[in-house]
Amino acid sequence: MVFLSAIFNFQSLLTVILLLICTCAYIRSLAPSVLDKNKTGVLGIFWKCARIGERKSPYVAVCCIVMAFSILFIQ
Asked: Per residue in 32-70, pLDDT tens?
């Protein structure tokens, strides 16, 4: 059995991205100052993920449900 990292397995990469978006949006809802002070640079990725999670939350929620169904019942 071959174990690939999340970079080489597309479904795992999508799962990691969805978890990153959801986590950043949750952290920003609890403590906005943590992510708002780093809007540029490498740490700006987390701010951008939080913005995606806030603005596209219905789509992110549907993607999370589809991904959970896929992981639980298809794999």
From this structure: 888 888 888 888 999 999 999 999 989 999 999 999 998
The tokens of 7 are what?
A: 């970079």
Cβ atoms < 10 Å from Cβ of 44? 12
Structure-block tokens of residue 59: 């789509």
C-alpha 69/C-alpha 24 separation (Å) is: 22
Structure tokens at 52: 């995606």
Confidence (pTM)? 0.80
C-alpha closest to that of 6 among 41, 18, 46 = 18
CA 45 to chain centre: 11
Alpha carbon separation from 42 to 11, 48, 70 (Å, rounded): 24, 11, 31
